[in-house]
Amino acid sequence: MNNLSKIAVGLDTRSYEILVQNGILNNVWEFISPFLKNGKLHIISDTNAFKLHGEKLLSSIKSNNVKYNIIEIESGEKSKSFASFENVIESLLSTGAERGDLIIAFGGGVTGDLSGFVAGVVNRGIDFIQIPTTLLSQVDSSVGGKTAINAKAGKNLVGLFWQPRAVLIDPLVLETLPKRDLMAGFAEIFKIGLINDAQFFDYCDKNYAKILGENSTSRRFAIETAIKAKANIVAQDEREGGIRALLNLGHTFAHAIEAGVNYNEQIWRHGEAVSCGIVMAANFSHQLGLLDEKSAKRIENFIQNCGYRTKLDDNGFNANDMLETMRHDKKNSGGQINLILLKNIGQAFIYKNAPIDKLKIFLESECAKAA
Ligand code: GLY
Description:
The chain has 371 residues and is α/β, with parallel strands linked by helices. The chain has 13 helices and eleven strands. The strands form three sheets. The chain has a seven-stranded mixed beta sheet, with helices on both faces.
């Protein structure tokens, strides 16, 4: 299980590898040094990740006499703001950051999204490497070059596609991750099975306890399968003109849930909202006559068995607000709502111009069932 896996993201001149290995954190120098020209290293990290794993990262770097500095950001979604974007940019520039330097994004999805955006614009673009430390960021946000901060109008509305030069994934860092965060990440794993790999969904269904339970071969297999699938989709559609939108299965409903609690991650983690959003997408697909009842039920049972909420809770959700959030989704065009729905397990598709009246009735019944 300690072999090094290399997963390629084929994007012409922006191609890169995702390297997965237990303990790769002890040996980062070998993998980052090829990308360090004559410049300095800037490590952007969130306080949690740095406290837990910073020493390991630094021990490999320090022994190589390279100039480096560390910019710490607060853990949590509030760091994806204009204010922290400005702070990080100013800190970088105050150290004399140059275009030949290398930025390391070391932390969870917030760190990766913010650091990638900073890397993409400072000095009109500096190379960066992602070293994600949560399951969600390892299998989803660190792969594919989406970077962003949040705006008043919504999450992830300000950013750019800026691909990393490499992604280093150490499954061992997940040993310090709370179970709740592991589960939030697992949502982005089993989602892949539902999108285009029914066999992998079967695997997740049979092995979820092992994947969530410990650092096992099942977990490693699940991580690598999800990354390979995402790398393959990104290589076909880097800027989400088509097939990449499938990765948003459950996300439009999820954003409506998250917005309903003001993106309070203590109440609904993103991955938890995605799981519940996938149940909604499956049930709405069934209501529209697109997905058979048995498959919709199987998806709901699986998600419930894993331990996720499959229904809205008593946080005052209402259908009109949810619909309003869904109208502002980035996948929409021309005022229509586009949803990712299911024809089968392993067969997601983009459903353009979803019927608003039916969606409203569906949301009303979901809100009425809230417990
Ligand atoms: N998280 C979905 C994507 O990267 O496209």
